[in-house]
Amino acid sequence: MKLYSFWRSLASFRVRIALKLKRRDFDVVSTDLLAGDQFKSDFNLINPQAMVPSLVLDDGSILYQSMALLEYLDEVYPDPPLMPQNAMARARVRALCMMAVADIHPLVVPRVRKYMTDKVGLDEAALNQWIENWTNLGLAAMEAHIEQNNPDGIYCEGDTVSLADLCLIPQVGAAQMFGFDVSHYPHLSRIFETCMSHPEFFDSRPQVQPDYPEELNGR
Amino acid sequence: MKLYSFWRSLASFRVRIALKLKRRDFDVVSTDLLAGDQFKSDFNLINPQAMVPSLVLDDGSILYQSMALLEYLDEVYPDPPLMPQNAMARARVRALCMMAVADIHPLVVPRVRKYMTDKVGLDEAALNQWIENWTNLGLAAMEAHIEQNNPDGIYCEGDTVSLADLCLIPQVGAAQMFGFDVSHYPHLSRIFETCMSHPEFFDSRPQVQPDYPEELNGR
């Protein structure tokens, strides 16, 4: 399998964790979203939205949209399961996924940041405020959900890693990269620490990707 | 079941269609997002994100996040199925869902429009441009996906209604309400017409909701 990925893409980060947890071999094809690789003409076939990730299966079929990918990988490679057996529990997992995938992430992706600076004219401080606003709203909702539904669990839902953790961890990592304080989210901070103790999460971080920029090392 | 809904909420629209297709009885509890009902103190228990929809089951359990709700309803009430049998086809359906649910909708919801006018200072024309930009990008991606994967099908995926149609239709309806021209998306326009010929879609429209404002009638 080939994963079209970018070091700082949170959606690619989610899928890297899933592929590692499912013990899949995959090659990473770096797609530099900041340099505009996604707008090159032949990339249209890989991803019609000019986004990453895209996963190219061994038969050449191409899948995109990280949530669709995560659910696909869990269905086709059921071991270890990343969704609970119970329908209500699955709904809770998917609700958490959506808080990250639909309510935080789409507001802070490169194309939106670019619109904000180039078309709306936001300066760096105002852009950072925008990013912090949606990040905090979403993380606070995830924290509240876990406090209400699973305050004593190890992970987002119960004591087992689920797709919710795969969506949460990149978002918390990004919040830290942006310099936001996540310590007032005790459940999220605790789950982040726990997940990062697993190599499948730790080795999927932006900072250890082959395309991570040298000049950022040590930051 | 009780559905906390708002006439112009696209996420509520999706769930209304699902409940009707699954032949579920449900009461609509109107939550006026423009008047701020979602910020009243007791609403926090219904939806910790101050959003709609929330679905209250007969045993009192509360579900939120429309995608989580749609998947739940399809799992618990499998007839008629709203997801294909094949895993690749399911991935295509979920990819289309995410184009609407994650890539268009979160950028045009009330809280983002409010931030844009109140904090960023966009005027009405610039706000409309913002809404049109993300709506068009997302609809174009859905059109391209269908052209590539299912050009001769009746619905978004094959010849059967799926969750992708439940996510597409409200978005096309909203584009029309905003006055955007959707005629250059032939697949989407055709699927919209077909779906709207079914009462489950037609009777879930914003315009026929009990809380639709009288002064908008005839517009």
What can you tell me about this protein's structure?
Two copies of one chain form a homodimer. With 219 residues, the first copy, chain A, is α+β, with helices and mostly antiparallel strands. The first copy, chain A, has two domains: 79 residues, Glutaredoxin, CATH 3.40.30.10; 116 residues, Up-down Bundle (Glutathione S-transferase Yfyf (Class Pi), Chain A, domain 2), CATH 1.20.1050.10. In chain A, 49% of the residues lie in helices and 6% in strands. Chain A is built from nine helices and four strands. Chain A has a four-stranded mixed β-sheet, covered by helices on one side. In chain A, helix 7 packs across helix 8. Chain A is globular.
Alpha-carbon Rg of chain A, integer:
17 Å
Number of domains of chain A: 2
Strand and helix order of chain A: EHEHEEHHHHHHH
- CATH class type of the largest domain in chain A: Mainly Alpha
Shape of chain A: globular
Strand ordering within the main sheet of chain A = 2-1-3-4
Give the chain pair forming the largest contact, with residue counts. Answer: A-B, 44 and 44 residues
- In CATH terms, what is the fold-level topology of the largest domain in chain A? Glutathione S-transferase Yfyf (Class Pi), Chain A, domain 2
CATH architecture of the largest domain in chain A: Up-down Bundle
End-to-end distance of chain A: 32 Å
Helix content of chain A: 40-55%
Low-confidence parts of chain A, pLDDT < 50 over ≥5 residues?
none
